[in-house]
Specification:
heterodimer; A: alpha/beta; 16 helices; globular; B: mainly alpha; two-stranded antiparallel sheet; 14 helices
Chain lengths: 413, 318
């Protein structure tokens, strides 16, 4: 009897689960309500590498704002942590009618091969073009920050921390710098170069070798200044505890993270600040999201803000990726290519070195009046709506994601 | 009424037919809900492709599960075999050596687990808990944070030559014959039904446990090769969810979680296809990807609860 009851209970749970699923995401029908029923309906798959505040913001923007205006339905992945999952998602999105994939997977080559096999148009968020771009006819474009620009932008954030004339011991959270994530690598290189120039350091290895360290490494600096490189991603159980151990030595007062992970270390930082009565300052790549604003607003035990400087990764890139894919779907797949090869369109991320600066940024991407790209602007990036569009004009729109342009267009100055 | 229900439930044909009926039923429902898009040839081929890796590893694992044991290191074993296979390819550029290396690694890793269980007389479950951690550490050491990439020209050509179907087909055929038509199959099922009784009738349980792990090792090696062909690279997330997928597939395929006489060699592939059908079909009818994971978990829970009861008179496995 107990067993029957437990099976019944689980079945009820399942049914309520499915009942919850019945409120489907906006579909093509909602596009019609916006007076866009004349537009041909399309479906696009969106492949996310992680799911965080920024991804949810992108999802919201596409589903509620872009989708209805262009009669496009989106299928979103959950966090894709393996190539196998990427393959399965792309295949299932294809079966569900998707004609294009917008991919944030950092391991882009198998994704490109799968899209090629299924004849799905692909737009990637990455900072380089594919080495075999000539064989990937389905690859429409790559949009991202040039690795060198990533380094340059982070340098601004770093300078705001080290321009106080004091010496600092630094932990560099280098993410995928050692396994070929070029933006992480270039940022790590830029940090090491900046520190070398600023403090006259002599490293025991070349900067390139140090930046590409695959294991946690204490850098020989030729002085008593300490630099610790901490590579890897937060997926493993030992990642955060490993960094906590280094922080607990109380020797490091500056943490520089090349990717969005600092929130996972915040408890460990707070603990060390309280027990050692020291201030650890943080500069990190971060999303344009409430959690970043909160970090700027939160005052820690030393009276400083939880985070001191950020390089803001912009969710608005999804608008550009959408426009590139929509061009391909509407018969202009080669518009953004040169000699049949998909190109990289690059832009610079935002930097904020104080709460005040961040608050200006945080006003963005809330609604139509503050979106980095409005529907009218997206239409300007699509040949179907803007007959004069060419590769150069599209590149200008990509550059328009940079802060000054956005402030000007949204009247935020 | 209750007796009639129990009679149907205990009938040997019920457990054989039900998984096929469920699979067919789900297929028909999704096909109707998607106006036939679900059952088009292209989609069915994609579903089969998605099920092949899990199906292959699960088919081998059926031999272990039949003995009443649970191996929770199938994913980690496959990841190590794939890593070694890919490394050998990168060093030698030879596909044949890659295949041999992956197969050998799969067999060695699995056989080692069985030896640990037999020598130290520790239940397989506990040995594989330890092995899971060890293998994961071994894979991370071998990879050293890298992603091993196989050129598209290589894995694409293997895909085009239908190598995955051939590997699965040959392995399944061998397993089918061994499981259903030889003493090995009968013995592992007997051990799963009643280990003490099997020993008293002259079956060396340790020997058959090692044979079961050896065959599962071949499945792990084959699964590793299929993983390389499907994804073209190996990293520290390779086969991360395979363990759960294999367990889900075996149970969903109609096999009792504690093995025994009702174990079926087709459970792995039928279950793997059912999981792939659910993933694809639910997405096609509009269920979001995030919810799919929850749905899978709930289905697994229902099936485990339903499969927990062992026939009266047999010793409990709990």
């Amino acid at each position: 009897m107990k067993k029957i009851l437990s099976v019944l209970l689980v079945l009820v749970m399942s049914l309520s689960f499915f009942a919850g699923c019945s409120s489907k995401t906006p579909t093509t029908g909602q596009g019609a309500s916006n007076g866009n029923s004349k537009l041909e309906p399309y479906t696009m798959g969106v492949l996310f590498f992680t799911i965080g505040a920024q991804e949810l913001q992108m999802k919201n923007y596409l589903e509620k704002y872009v989708g209805p205006a262009f009669n496009v339905k989106f299928i979103f992945s959950d966090a894709i942590d393996s190539t196998e999952k990427s393959m399965t998602f792309i295949e299932n999105a294809y079966s569900s009618g998707a004609k294009a994939i917008l991919s944030f997977d950092t391991n882009s080559e198998p994704v490109a091969a799968k899209c090629q096999e299924l004849k799905l148009y692909l737009v990637t968020n990455q900072s380089k073009t594919f080495p075999n771009a000539d064989k990937l006819s389905q690859n429409v474009a790559s949009i991202g920050t040039l690795p060198t620009d990533s380094g340059k932008t982070f340098q601004k954030a770093l300078n705001s921390l080290i321009n106080d004339g004091k010496k600092h011991n630094v932990i560099i959270v280098s993410g995928g710098a050692g396994i070929g994530t070029s933006s992480h690598y270039e940022t790590a290189v830029s940090i090491l170069k900046t520190l070398q120039e600023k403090y006259g350091l002599t490293y025991g290895e070349t900067i390139e070798k140090l930046a590409a360290s695959k294991a946690a490494t204490e850098v020989k600096t030729g002085t008593d200044m300490k630099i610790y490189i901490y590579p890897g991603f937060a997926g493993s159980d030992t990642y955060v505890p490993g960094l906590s151990t280094v922080l607990q030595t109380g020797q490091y007062d500056t943490l520089l993270s090349v990717y969005q992970v600092y929130t996972q270390f915040s408890a460990a930082i707070d603990e060390v600040e309280k027990s050692k009565k020291m201030n650890i300052r943080v500069a990190s790549v971060a999303p344009l999201a409430d959690q970043t604003a909160k970090s700027f607003e939160t005052i820690d035990s030393t009276g400083d803000t939880s985070i001191n400087a950020v390089v803001v990764k912009q969710g608005s890139i999804i608008a550009l990726m959408f426009a590139a894919a929509y061009n391909a779907l509407t018969g202009n797949a080669d518009l953004l290519k040169v000699d049949g090869k998909a190109q990289l369109f690059s832009f610079e991320n935002f930097t904020a070195t104080s709460a005040q600066e961040y608050m200006t940024l945080s006003k963005l991407d809330k609604d139509e009046s503050t979106y980095v790209y409005t529907i009218d602007e997206i239409k300007q990036m699509i040949k179907k709506f803007n007959d004069k569009l060419d590769k150069e004009t599209f590149a200008k729109w990509v550059k328009a994601m940079e802060l000054e342009s956005v402030k000007q267009r949204r009247g935020l100055k | 009424m209750k007796e009639a229900f129990l009679k149907i439930k205990e009938n040997r044909w019920t457990s054989i037919i039900v998984p096929f009926v469920v699979l067919l039923g789900i297929g028909i429902i999704f096909s109707l809900l998607t106006n036939g898009r679900f059952s088009n040839e292209n989609n069915l081929r994609l579903i089969l492709n998605q099920a092949l890796i899990t199906g292959t590893v699960a088919t081998g694992a059926v031999f272990i599960y039949s003995t009443g044991n649970v191996n929770i290191a199938m994913g980690a074993s496959t990841a190590v075999a794939a890593t070694i296979g890919a490394m050998i390819y990168v060093r030698t550029g030879s596909v044949s050596l890659m295949v041999i290396a992956a197969m050998a690694a799969g067999i060695i890793v699995m056989y080692f687990s069985s030896l640990m269980s037999v020598i130290f007389k520790v239940r397989v479950l506990f040995v594989t808990v330890v092995m899971m951690g060890l293998l994961s550490a071994l894979q991370q050491t071998l990879l050293n944070g890298d992603v091993i990439k196989i050129p598209y020209s290589v894995y694409g050509a293997l895909k085009d030559a239908n190598v995955p179907y051939i590997i699965f087909g040959v392995f399944f055929l061998i397993c089918f014959v061994v499981f259903n038509l030889t003493k090995i199959g009968r013995s592992v099922k007997f051990i799963g039904s009643n280990e003490s009784c099997a020993e008293l009738t002259g079956i060396f349980t340790n020997k058959y446990l090692q044979i079961a792990f050896f065959i599962a090792g071949i499945g792990v090696g084959a699964g590793a090769i299929l993983t390389i062909i499907r994804t073209g690279n190996v990293n520290n997330a390779t086969a991360a969810s395979l363990n759960m997928d294999v367990m889900l597939a075996i149970v969903l395929g109609g096999m009792p979680i504690f093995g025994g006489s009702k174990s079926k060699i087709h459970a792995g592939i039928i279950g793997a296809i059912t999981v792939a059908v659910l993933n694809s079909g639910l997405l096609m009818v509009g269920v979001s990807n995030t919810l799919l994971q929850g749905v899978r978990g709930i289905i697994f829970m229902v099936l485990v609860i339903a499969a927990l009861k062992r026939p009266d008179g047999l010793p409990s496995r709990l």
